[in-house]
C-alpha cells in the first residue's frame, strides 16, 4: 500500500464520508426528479405516485424533513453518551468501532439524506398565482425514504445494542489482529531460508537521514524504498517500523554509501497509530481491554480471559507461517533492510501487560498457562516453543509470588507442569523427525 491509498482508506473510513456521499446523491436525485416532472409530467397509469396538491405536499415534506433530522439528532446524541460511558471500561477503541461501522454510517446517511431530499424538494413546490407545481415523483420518493428511516432506526437500535457488548468488541479486535497477522506473515515452505542483515560495522560510514517532523509511522512502502535504493545503487537501512513514534531530528535511516532520493516519500507519519502494517497496535488494543478489565475499579477477569483466548487463537494460526526477514535484494544485490516484528516481540506485547495486571488473580494465571499449553501443542518451531516456555515461567513466578491460597498455588503448579509436558513431547517429536530424515538420507543415527 502506498501513501495515496492509505489516505484514501482513512478518508473513506471517516464517520462523515458515507453520510456525505448519500446526501450529495439525494440532492442530485431530487434535482433529477424535479427536472423529469417539469419536462415529461406524470404518465397515466402510475397509480403509486403521490397525487396530492400543493398544500398536502408541503405539509408532508415538512413533516418528513423535521422528523428525520430530529430523530437522527436525538438517537445519535444518546448513543454517543452511552458509548462514552462504556468506553471507560472497554477503552477508546469502542468509539473507533462505532465510527468505522458501516451500519452506523448508513443509518446516519439515511436520515440525513432523507432530510436533505425533502428540504430540497420543498423549495420546488409552488402554489402562488396561476403557477402551481408539485413534484409528485419526489414526494413519493420522500415517503419511501421515510419508511426506510423507520426500518433503519429499528436496525440501528438492535445493532448498537450488540456493538457495545464486550464479547463483540473483543471479536472485532481479534479479527483485526488475525488480518494483520496474515498480511505480516507468509506461508512457510520447506526450503525457505532467512537472509541475514549486514553487521553494524557495515553501516558506520553511511549517510544518515533524520526525521523532518514527528508522529507515528503509519505506513512504510517497501516496494518504493527498494526501487529508490536500486535506482541509486545503494543499500538502505531503516531504523523505524510501522507503529514506532518518530521524534523530530531522530535518525530513521542510513544509506551506504549514500542515501537515495525520496526516502520520506515512502514513509507516512500521522498523529495516531493505524491498523494494517502496525501489527503490535492490533495486539495492544486487545491487551488494553484486558488491562482495563483487570483494574481494581472494574475487576472483570472474565473479559481478560476472553482476551487471553483470542491471543491463543492468533498464535495457533501462525503454525505454518513464517515472518519476513526484512532483508531485500535486487539482482542479487542487497538493497534494503527494514526492522520487522518477530514472534518474541509479538508474544511480549500480548502477555506482558496481562501478566503484570493479573498476577494476583488465580483464574487469570491458570488460564494463561492453559493457553500456553494449547499454543505449545500447535507450534512446531523450536524457537517459538522456547518463547512460550519463557512466558510460562514468568507467569508461574508472578503467580506463586502473589497468590496465597494453597489450592490456587497447586493449580498454578499443575498447569505449569502440563505446559512443560507438552514442550517435552514436542522435543521428542522433533528428535524423532530429525532421526527419520537422517536415515532417509542414508545417514547413521547413534
TrEMBL record:
<keyword id="KW-0812">Transmembrane</keyword>
<dbReference type="Pfam" id="PF10011">
    <property type="entry name" value="DUF2254"/>
</dbReference>
<keyword id="KW-0472">Membrane</keyword>
<protein>
    <submittedName>
        <fullName>DUF2254 domain-containing protein</fullName>
    </submittedName>
</protein>
<dbReference type="InterPro" id="IPR018723">
    <property type="entry name" value="DUF2254_membrane"/>
</dbReference>
<feature type="transmembrane region" description="Helical">
    <location>
        <begin position="137"/>
        <end position="158"/>
    </location>
</feature>
<feature type="transmembrane region" description="Helical">
    <location>
        <begin position="60"/>
        <end position="85"/>
    </location>
</feature>
<feature type="transmembrane region" description="Helical">
    <location>
        <begin position="106"/>
        <end position="125"/>
    </location>
</feature>
<keyword id="KW-1133">Transmembrane helix</keyword>
Amino acid at each position: 500500500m502506498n501513501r495515496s491509498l492509505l489516505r484514501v482508506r482513512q478518508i473513506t473510513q471517516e464517520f462523515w464520508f458515507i453520510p456525505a456521499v448519500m446526501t450529495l446523491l439525494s440532492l442530485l436525485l431530487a434535482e433529477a426528479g424535479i427536472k423529469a416532472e417539469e419536462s415529461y409530467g406524470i404518465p397515466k397509469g402510475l397509480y403509486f405516485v403521490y397525487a396530492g396538491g400543493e398544500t398536502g405536499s408541503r405539509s408532508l415534506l415538512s413533516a418528513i424533513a423535521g422528523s428525520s433530522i430530529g430523530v437522527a439528532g436525538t438517537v445519535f446524541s444518546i448513543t454517543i453518551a452511552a458509548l462514552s460511558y462504556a468506553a471507560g471500561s472497554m477503552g477508546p477503541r469502542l468509539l473507533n468501532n462505532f465510527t468505522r461501522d458501516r451500519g452506523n454510517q448508513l443509518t446516519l446517511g439515511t436520515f440525513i439524506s432523507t432530510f436533505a431530499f425533502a428540504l430540497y424538494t420543498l423549495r420546488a413546490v409552488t402554489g402562488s398565482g396561476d403557477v402551481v407545481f408539485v413534484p409528485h415523483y419526489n414526494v413519493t420518493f420522500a415517503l419511501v425514504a421515510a419508511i426506510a428511516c423507520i426500518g433503519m432506526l429499528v436496525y440501528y437500535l438492535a445493532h448498537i445494542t450488540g456493538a457495545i457488548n464486550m464479547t463483540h468488541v473483543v471479536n472485532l479486535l481479534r479479527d483485526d489482529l488475525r488480518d494483520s497477522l496474515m498480511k505480516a506473515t507468509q506461508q512457510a515452505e520447506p526450503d525457505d531460508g532467512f537472509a541475514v542483515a549486514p553487521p553494524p560495522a557495515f553501516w558506520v560510514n553511511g549517510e544518515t537521514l533524520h526525521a523532518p517532523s514527528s508522529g507515528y509511522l503509519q505506513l512504510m512502502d517497501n516496494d518504493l524504498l527498494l526501487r529508490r535504493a536500486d535506482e541509486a545503487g545503494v543499500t538502505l537501512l531503516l531504523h523505524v517500523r510501522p507503529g514506532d513514534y518518530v521524534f523530530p531530528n531522530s535518525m530513521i535511516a542510513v544509506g551506504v554509501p549514500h542515501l537515495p532520493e525520496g526516502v520520506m516519500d515512502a514513509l507516512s507519519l500521522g498523529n495516531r497509530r493505524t491498523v494494517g502494517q502496525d501489527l503490535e497496535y492490533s495486539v495492544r488494543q486487545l491487551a488494553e481491554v484486558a488491562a482495563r478489565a483487570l483494574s481494581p475499579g472494574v475487576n472483570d477477569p472474565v473479559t481478560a480471559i476472553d482476551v487471553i483466548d483470542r491471543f491463543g487463537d492468533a498464535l495457533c494460526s501462525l503454525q505454518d507461517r513464517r515472518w519476513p526477514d526484512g532483508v531485500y535484494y535486487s539482482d542479487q544485490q542487497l538493497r534494503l533492510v527494514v526492522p520487522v516484528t518477530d514472534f518474541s516481540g509479538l508474544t511480549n506485547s500480548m502477555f506482558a501487560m496481562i501478566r503484570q495486571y493479573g498476577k494476583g488473580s488465580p483464574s487469570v494465571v491458570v488460564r494463561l498457562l492453559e493457553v500456553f499449553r494449547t499454543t505449545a501443542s500447535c507450534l512446531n518451531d523450536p524457537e517459538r516453543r522456547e518463547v512460550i516456555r519463557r512466558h510460562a515461567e514468568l507467569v508461574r513466578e508472578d503467580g506463586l509470588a502473589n497468590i496465597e491460597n494453597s489450592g490456587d498455588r497447586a493449580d498454578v503448579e499443575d498447569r505449569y507442569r502440563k505446559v512443560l509436558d507438552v514442550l517435552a513431547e514436542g522435543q521428542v517429536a522433533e528428535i524423532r523427525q530429525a532421526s527419520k530424515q537422517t536415515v532417509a538420507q542414508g545417514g547413521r543415527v547413534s
